[in-house]
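sorry to bug you again but im stuck and you know this stuff better than me. what follows is a protein written twice so to speak, once as letters and once as C-alpha cells for the fold. id like you to explain what the C-alpha cell line says about the fold, in plain words if possible. anything you notice is useful, everything is just below.
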Amino acid sequence: MADVQQRNITKVLIANRGEIAMRVIRACRDLGIGTVAVYSDVDRTALHVRYADEAVHIGAPQPRESYLRMDKIIEAARRTGADAIHPGYGFLAENAEFAQQVTDEGITFIGPGPDAIRAMGDKQSAREAVKRNNVPLIPGTEAGLHDDEVIAAAEGIGFPVMVKAVAGGGGKGMRIVNDAASLPAALKSARSEAESAFGNGDIYIEKMLVGARHIEFQILADMHGNTIHVGERECSIQRRNQKLVEEAPSVFMDPELRERMGKMAIAAAESVNYVNAGTIECLVDKDKNFYFLEMNTRLQVEHPVTELVHGIDLAKEQIRIARGRPMTYTSSFLRPKGWAIECRINAEDPYNNFIPSVGKITAFSSPKGPGVRVDSGVYSNYEITPYYDSMIAKLITTGDTRQEALLRMRRALDEFVIMGVKHNIPFHINLMNSVSFIAGQFDTRWVEERFNMGNYESDPTDEDLEIAAIAATLHAHRRRQLAAQVVAPAARDTSNWKWLSRWERIRR
C-alpha cells in the first residue's frame, strides 16, 4: 500500500443538484478546490448553480435527459477542465458503469471503485460477498427462482416475509406479505415494479423481522488499507421504507453492541475491498441480534448527524481519500459526543397521505441559533417541480443529551417558515411530542402502524378537545393583545421618549 499514487484535485464537477450539490460545493471551498455545477432547464436559477464557480447546462428537466446522462456530464467535465467528479447521492451515485466511464476518461471519481459498486448494488451478490466474512444475514432465498420455488421457500422460512427487488432501492419492488395466499400477487406486482424502475425484474424474499430497528454504520476506507467505522445512526422512523428522521447515536445501542456491529460493518466493507465512504445498513431485533441488510456505496442523506456527534467532515474525507491520501482518522469512532437529530423537510402533505406538493415557495425562513444546522438548496420564490424528489431541507439539531437535541428540534421546527407549498413540518412537530418517540420506543413499522397525524397515538376525549379549543382561543387572544401593544398608536399624544422627558422635567 506504500506505493499508492497520490493525485491532485483542482476542480470538482458535482453530478447532482439540490442540497447535496450545495454540501459538496462548500466542502470544496473549504479545501480551496474549484467547482462546476450542472443543471437542467428548470434548475437554471437553482442555488447550486449560483454558488458554483462554473455551471454547465446539460438538458431537459427529466432526469433521463440531464442528470442521468453520463455522456453529457463527462463532456461537461472535459469542457471545464474538471479533474474529479463527485456524484452526491441518487442519480448516478451508485452506477458502476458511470464510475467506470469517469475513471476510463482519466477523471477521478470521488467514491468507491466500479467493482465495489457493482458487487454491493446487486443485493444477491452483496449477500454472497459479505457471507464470506461471516456477516450475519436475514434468512432468505436466492434471486432468479420461479414463483412456485419462492412460494415453497416462503413456507419453510415462515411468514411474514419481505419480497425485495434485486436491483435498486428506495422501497421500489418491495412488498410485505403476511400469508401464503397473498404471496403470488405480491410477487407479480413486485416484479413488474422492479422491471419498470430498474430494468431488472428479479426478486427474492427475506424473513420479515417484526419489531426490528433500522440501524446503520458509517464506513470510511482509504487506499492505504485503513477501514474504520464512524459510529451508528438510528433510522427506524420510516414510512413506506423511506426514512423521515435519523439520529446519532441510537437509543437502542450499548457499547458492547456498538463494538460488535462496528466490527461486522468493517468486515462487510472489506469483503469487496471497499474504498471511500459507505454505509452498512442493518436490522436489529428486540434481542439485539443484528443482520446485514445492504450497503449504500455513497454519502448518505443523513450523514450530518454523524458529522455533528463525531466532529468529522465526511465530504472532505471523501475528497482526501480520492486523492490517494491516508484518512485523517485511522481508528474507529466508539464514543459519540452529544446527540444529533435530523428531520427531512419535504414538500408533501402529511394530512393527505403525504402526497407531494409542487409550486413556488413564496416565503422561506430557516431557523438559527445554538445547535441548529440547515442543509438546503432552496430560497424564497424557488419552484418545487414534479421532476425531482420533494426534499426542501434537512434540519439538524444537536445537544449534549438527546433531550437537549430534541428540545432544540422543537424550537427549530416552530421557527421554520415555509409558505407557498405544503410541507411535513406538522408531522415532525407531532412526532417530537410523541411519548413513544421521546422514550425511544419505536421500530421500522411504528409510523405506519401506530402513529397518525390526527392525534398523539390515542384518540382525544371530548374533554381534551374542549381544553385544546380553550387553550387555542386564549393563545390567539394573547397574541392579538401583544401585537396591539406594538403596532397600535399610544394613548398619549406623544412618544414614550418625549413623555419620559416631560415627566423627568416635572420632577426636577
